[in-house]
Structure formats: C-alpha cells, structure tokens
Amino acid sequence: MGTNPQSTLLTRRTFLATSACAFCPWPALATAPIATASKLMPQVKPRLLVLFAHPDPNVEGWPYKGFDFEGRKKTLLAALERACPGIEFVAASAQTAEQAQPILAQHNSVDGYVLYLLGLPSNAGRPVAFSGRPTLIVDDLYGGTGQFLGLYAEALRKGMPVAGVASSRIEDVAIALRAFEALKKLRASTLLDVVDRDISQAADLYRQTLGLTVQAVAPDRLNAAYERASLDDARPWARQWIREAKKVVEPSTEEIERSARMYLAMSALLSEHQAQAIAVDCLTLFYSGKLPAYPCLGFFQLNNDGLVGACEADLESAATMLLMSYLTGRPGYISDPVIDMATNQVIYAHCVAPSKVYGPSGRANPYHIRSHSEDRKGASVRSLMPLGEMTTTLKVIPSQKLVVFHQGRTVANIDEDRACRTKLAVQVRDARKLAADWGWGWHRVTVYGDWRTLLETTTRLMGFRLIEEG
User: Fold this and answer.
1) Rounded Cα distance, 181 and 187, in Å
2) 167: burial class by Cβ within 10 Å (0-12, 13-18, 19+)?
3) For residue 254, what are the contacts with CB-CB under 8 A and spacing of at least 6?
4) Edge to edge, what strands does the sheet with 367-372 contain?
5) End position of a domain, from candidates 131, 159, 184
6) pLDDT at residue 283 in the model
7) Which of 237, 377, 419, 458 has its CA 20 to 30 A from that of 262?
C-alpha cells in the first residue's frame, strides 16, 4: 500500500530495479547519454535570512521568564543546516518591529525569509510577515504560538507570499524549505520548446511569473541534430529499451532505433543550451512530415533520468514537471485524463510515461514498447506503474498564477486498445464532482506520492493560488 513519500523518498531509492529480467546483470550501455541530469542540474543554492523573533528573556511570557533564547537559536540553526545542505542560512534576531526593519533592509538580496517565532510578547515578526517577500513562518511550539496563530492567517488574507509550519518535528520545517530550493532551481532553468510558431509572449509570461527561461527551437534544428546522431550511437539505446521491456508489440527494431536517434538529438540540444527540459510539438510536426520519428521513447528516457521531456509542446505541463522534479526528486508525466463515473476513477492516458516513478535511483516498473496510438505509427511506451500508491495530479497555470490539483490511489493499469497506450487508473474522491469542476485544459501531470502539504507551501511562497479539483 502507499507510503508517505516525504519520509521515505531516500529509502525507496535504495531498491533494486525490477523488470522482466530483474536479477539478470545487463551489460553496461556502450554509449553514455549526451546530456545527463547531473551535468545539467542548476548548481544554485537559495540564500535565506532566518530571523528569530522573541522578547527580552527578562520579561514574563512564553516560554517563560529567563528562557535561554540564545541556546535555542543555536540548536535550531544547527538542525536546519544539517537538514538542508542545499540552502545557505544567514541568522539574525529581533525583539521588536523597530529592530527587525533595518535587518530586513540589510538583507534585501536574499531569496526569502524564515521567520522563527520563539517567544512572546514580541512584535518583531510583523515586518517580516508583511514584507512582500517569500517567507516561511515557523512556530517554535510553546514559544511563539500566540503570535503564529493570527499573524500567519492575517498575512495570507492580505495576499502575502507566506507559508506556515507549526510542528514538533524539525523535519517538517526542512520539507517546507524544499520549496525555496525548487524555486531557485526553476529560476535558473531553461525549457526548450520545439515549435514552428512564435512563442515570445509565452516566454515573457514564464519569465515574469516563474523565472523560467523558455527558448524556442525550430524543428529544423532538432532534425539537424537527428541527422548528426549516428546509428552506431543510437543502437545501444534501442537494444537497452528492447531488452528491458516486458514485451515489444508493434514497432520494428528499425523504428526503435529511429526513436533512439531522436533521443540523442534532444539530448544534444539540452546539452548545447544547458537546458533541463524539452517540449516538442510532436503530433503537429509528425503528422505534417516535419519530424522523422516520435520523441516518446526519448521522453521516457529523459524523465527516468531526472530531466524533463514533455509532449505536444505543452509549456504548462512541462513547467509543472520541472517544478515537481525539483520538489520531489520524482518524474511527472502528462496525460489526457479519462473520467469513469461508474467506478469513481480517473484513467491517466498517454503514450509517454516513466518507468521510474520514484526517481532516477528508484526501482523500475515493467513497460511495453508499442506504436503511437492515434496513428499506429512510430514507437511509444505503455508503462505498467505501481498500484496501491497515492498520486498527486496537477498543473501550473502561469497566466492565472494558479495551480490546480487532485489526488487518488492507483488501482489498475488498464488494458484497452482504444486511445493512448499507458492507462493508469486512480480511485478519486468524487469523479462526478471532478468532472463538474474540470477546467484549464485537458492535460494534467501525475506524480507518485502525497504532495499536498508541499504544494500548499510552494504555491503560497510563489504567490499563486492552489485549487483542489473534485
């Protein structure tokens, strides 16, 4: 059955890969990928001001008169540094709002604030909470609770980009701080969009709302990279995909080799632009004869390896996949959801899905290599994904500063020849209400795990709204 990904993500990554030949030692791949996640991941760290707000220890209040605030600060800061090696912390303290304001002015170049409420009475947290900068407000239990209860809600009501944690576990603070890391990486990332149209307005929107660079790539450039990709380099990838597949149904070896050349072409573009994600207007380009092979198997490999390959030049879904990869270490996959009211299920259908839903180092699930469904050409993937697991399905909509999401538990890999090859069925809370609530386009992105709390934190720090569908 499902587990809590926020506490078991590292454990899952220690599992051995499983497939039709799980215990057979496959030979090492002869040709390394041109673009690897480790080389392309943004090497950035957010810098955060931790402001400890508390009263004079000689004043009566919470926790109590004479409390050792200095010792508590050292303990908490050391714990944060151990739990969050990817973040640089700068610490300061204030007892009053007047003391806090010059501290904020001095540190106005940081990526955000962590407001730690240690005790009462103190109004030092107010300038931080209402600064307009991304701020995580943390209640040190039995210390700042009276300030946390009220200040946090007030800041949210006034539209401040704040999130809150009141927990006896320092791990919950560390999990919330992942949002700062993910957003910093997103702002340092590039998404390539292979399209035959002008996307300059969309690129401006994504830069302004997410800090993400979106760069158009003409189809001719992808095709030129495809022509440069040698068959000798492509064949080892084709052999690996065939060997690891539970079965190959329609595609010939030659077709899968063409897919491998397309993978190498996309990988080369990612490397050339130091990009972390690529979206391709695949259906339009393939149907019009402007693409020599479907990118489905290449997307499959990129997503398994920790990068992002996104179908149909869908920038919203591609940005969603990239953000969730940074937040969770797990791939998302785009789908055309099908709602079945008879079973209270959503079936996430598409011709691309990863086989490493727990991340690049996690165990793999079986998959089939099939033709692309709509035209019965090319090569694509039917991924047979784990069952009994919670999933979070969402989409980031920059034009409205909005994230929509719903959740459910995986129950079946549907075997149905109609529509897209991968069909993951998920039991949801209310399929009828989900259908009635549906908006913002057909596509959604599904990620294994229960990421509700982390999504709430992240969207609040972004200044986005979060709407639960269904």
Assistant:
1) 10
2) middle
3) none
4) 247-248, 367-372, 377-383
5) 184
6) 85
7) 419
CA distances to 177, 236, 303, 390, 405 from 4, in Å: 18, 37, 22, 9, 18
Q: For tokens 């806090």, name the residue.
A: 100
Same domain, 142 and 272: no
Q: Which residue has the tokens 């979206």?
A: 279
Domain boundary residue among 150, 184, 218? 184
The Cα–Cα gap between 459 and 346 comes to 24
Find the domain containing 362 and state its range. 5-42+189-468
Task: Let me know whether 174 and 244 are in one domain.
Answer: no
- Please name the residue that has the structure tokens 């990709």: 229
- Shared domain for 193 and 180, answered yes or no, is no
**Do 213 and 348 sit in the same domain of this protein?**
yes
- At 406 the three-state DSSP class reads strand
Of 339, 331, 323, 350, the C-alpha closest to 443 is 350
Digit-coded pLDDT (tens) for 220-273: 999 999 999 999 999 999 999 999 999 999 999 999 999 999 999 999 999 999
pLDDT at 38: 82
Res 13: pLDDT: 30
- Cα–Cα distance for residue pair 458/122, rounded to 1 Å: 27
CATH number at residue 98: 3.40.50.2300
One domain for residues 288 and 330: yes
CA–CA dist 101, 106 (Å, integer): 9
Query: Distance between CA 174 and CA 413 in Å, rounded?
Result: 35
pLDDT exceeds 70 at position 208: yes
Same domain for 343 and 400, yes or no, is yes
Angstrom distances, CA of residue 124 to CA of 51, 66, 156, 173, 354 = 9, 19, 18, 20, 48
Residues 336-363: tens digit of each pLDDT: 999 999 999 999 999 899 999 999 999 9
pLDDT at 420: 87
The answer to whether residues 113 and 64 belong to one domain is yes
Tokens 């207007």 — which residue?
281
The string over 281-291, giving b where at least 16 C-beta atoms fall within 10 Å of a residue's C-beta and e elsewhere, is bbbbbbeeeeb
Number of domains in the chain: 2
Q: Note the pLDDT of residue 257.
A: 98
Q: Is 131 in the same domain as 266? A: no
Write out pLDDT tens, residues 16-39: 233 333 322 223 333 455 667 889
Listed in sequence order, the residues at least 6 apart from 161 whose beta carbon sits closer than 8 Å to its beta carbon are: 132, 133, 134, 135, 460, 461, 462, 463
Torsion angle in degrees (nearest 10) through CA of 267, 269, 271, 272: 160
Task: Pick the closest to residue 257 from 91, 369, 116 (CA basis).
Answer: 369
